[in-house]
Design a protein that fits this description.
Blueprint (H helix, E strand, L loop, with lengths): L2 H6 L4 H32 L14 H28 L2 H33 L7 H22 L3 H28 L20 H44 L1
Helix pairs in contact: 2-7, 3-4, 3-6, 3-7, 4-5, 4-7, 5-6
């Protein structure tokens, strides 16, 4: 069996249910360990910042939530493209399952950003480019979820929401890179960077990495759980349709 074939076999609902059911408890465990230890370490065992005081500890929720708010939408984009190209129903259902999770992460990002912004900027909200793009991204999440709920035909709903996902990806990318495009915005530069030039202090860095890993595992666990629920609901609707015809 080729590598491609071995990957695509997980798009089969039966195979997906078997594998996801086996790995889900371990993903939940990793999420609990990483998120619990990262938040406890960050909130109780790190010092206050000399400029931001105790509000600096919001980063242990704000940064991981922002990371996953953006990446959840990008995951939905990949799943939607797979649906367009391969017509695998599991990919469409995974995109649908990820949307409410991403919406909650986006809402957490906006709320924690407001809590940080009020003492730092003197206002709960500013039409900063990054804040604005995040707010628009949240509206896209809400619209995506609403569109799924409004259309009875699941294949048509998957097609239309995939288009919404493609358009919304512009704002997902803007949310990530707005601080580079518009340097005059209020939002500070990135707390992390791959080249190591921009990082928070090490005392905050290590618990932040744990919190980020926890959010990643939490997202995976929630999406797997919700996708399994969507597959079961789809099977139930199919059974009900057959009974109605009989």
């Amino acid at each position: 069996m080729s590598v491609s074939a071995s990957v695509w076999r997980y798009a089969n609902p039966v195979e997906f249910m078997r594998v996801s059911g086996a790995v889900l408890p371990y993903v939940w465990g990793l999420a609990a360990i990483c998120l619990g230890s990262g938040l406890v370490w960050g909130y109780f065992f790190t010092p206050e910042d000399y400029q931001q005081g105790a509000t600096v500890k919001i980063i242990f929720l704000h940064v991981p939530a922002a990371l996953m708010a953006i990446n959840a939408w990008l995951m939905m984009l990949v799943a939607s493209l797979i649906w367009f190209i391969r017509r695998h129903h599991v990919s469409a259902l995974a995109a649908r399952a990820a949307a409410p999770v991403g919406a909650v992460f986006t809402l957490v990002t906006l709320a924690t950003g407001a809590l940080w912004g009020q003492p730092m900027w003197g206002t709960w909200w500013a039409w900063d480019p990054r804040l604005t793009s995040f707010f628009i991204l949240f509206l896209f999440y809400v619209g995506y979820v609403a569109l799924w709920e409004a259309i009875d035909d699941p294949d048509k709903a998957a097609d239309l929401t995939a288009v919404v996902c493609l358009v919304g990806s512009v704002f997902a990318l803007l949310s990530r890179y707005a601080v580079f495009f518009w340097s005059q915005g209020l939002h500070q530069g990135p707390s992390l960077s791959l080249d190591g030039k921009q990082h928070v202090a090490d005392v905050f860095w290590y618990p932040l990495i744990l919190s980020m890993a926890g959010f990643v595992f939490l997202f995976i666990a929630l999406v797997l759980l919700r996708t399994r629920t969507e597959i079961r609901a789809r099977r139930l609707r199919a059974i009900e349709a057959l009974e109605a015809r009989g």
